Amino acid sequence: MRRIIALFLIFFILTGLAGCEPLRKKFTRKKKEPVKMPRIYQVKKYEKKPTPELYKQHYVYWMTWHSELLKVLGRNHKKDVKCMEEIVGNLKDMQNMLLEEKADQLEPHIQRLVKVQDIITKEDLSTGNKDYVRMTLEREDRFVKREFHYKKVKDHLKKSFGDEDAAGAAPQTGK
Questions:
Q1: What is the three-class DSSP state of 28?
Q2: CA of residue 159 relative to chain centroid, distance
């Protein structure tokens, strides 16, 4: 009988020491999460106009990515793809800032670079393709630097991005 009483006593002491965590959790207060205030954004019309500074910025970006690609062509596929994306993107941005006549002169060169981008993207840089890509990049580099330098096209910039007509001309006054 003493053994049974000793076992019960030991059992009750152990359960008392271990506690009853789920029961204790039921009756304790839970911390309230702070209510997050929703962010309110005020939308306002943002208009960016083509300026010589903006054109110069895209020209410098294009020139930097172009020279970078010529330095590392064929060493790292991801770097080559990124450089080509940036080159074509910056040329298209430059084209969007130019009047239609001048922008049309840039279009065939962008298309040649898009073909080069396709070659690079498909990881098809064999020796022959690598030479073709390098020669095309060097030729387009010379042409864009000669014909689309920001000092030469400052008179051919649009007044706004929506303009399709001769925005470089003086505004018409009176009817």
A1: coil
A2: 26
118-133 pLDDT, tens digit each:
999 987 788 888 899 9
What's at 47, amino acid-wise?
Answer: E
Q: Cα separation of 87 and 123, whole Å?
A: 18
Place of tokens 């630097």: 145
Tokens of 28: 């304790």
> Max alpha carbon distance in the chain (Å)?
120
Among 90, 93, 78, residue whose Cα is nearest residue 158? 93
Q: At 167, phi and psi to the nearest 5?
A: -75, -15
The residue count for the chain: 175
Question: Which of 39, 41, 32, 122 lies closest to 84, judged by CA?
Answer: 122
